[in-house]
Design goal:
Elements (H helix, E strand, L loop, with lengths): L2 E6 L3 H11 L5 E7 L2 H9 L5 E4 L9 H9 L6 E6 L4 H9 L4 E4 L4 H12 L4 E2 L1 H12 L7 H11 L4 H8 L3 H15 L4 H10 L6
Parallel strand pairs: 1-2, 1-3, 3-4, 4-5, 5-6
Amino acid sequence: MTIRLLLADDHPVVRAGLRAVLDTEPDFAVVAEAATAERAVELAAAGGVDVVLMDLQFGSGMHGSEATAAITAVPDGPKVLVLTTYDTDADILAAVEAGASGYLLKDAPPEELAAAVRTAAAGQSALAPAVAHRLMDRMRTPAEALTKRELEVLQLVGEGLSNQQISKVLFLSQATVKSHLVHVFAKLGVDSRTAAVATATARRLIRR
């Protein structure tokens, strides 16, 4: 049985490289490519695709995790295997919550990529070892782990947004944003926004 693949990445060179690697597998067929997350959703909805290899960061427009949620929400739709350079808690949690069947880093060897595609196509979970390790660490120390919402707030703080701006982006009250930051400071053992961002970045909880 042939596994039909859709490559979703905004870099043509990356798509060409992936296609070259995947075309060497006798049971794979790259049937479509998308340079935007929106286009990936359209092509996935059209049918004829078994697994979508999804980047997380596109130049503009929809984020990869949003596209993943849209694709996996369709009954009997294709599986989504996230293939990205980011291994932060914020990115991993967003992708897993969106329904991704797997999460792999772009520096994965070809045989690991092929195995992950087959695993995802079979409806099973395919996580890079480093990603699985980070998720296990979160499960072992849940009281210390930042929640998905706390990570979202902190990511926006790192991008320079004020509490007021964050409240508009996430549709939260300013009091709720402040409450999240109080919890973040306590969990990270810091007392300022700058220190929180620096600590979270160093621990690869958010990206800079």
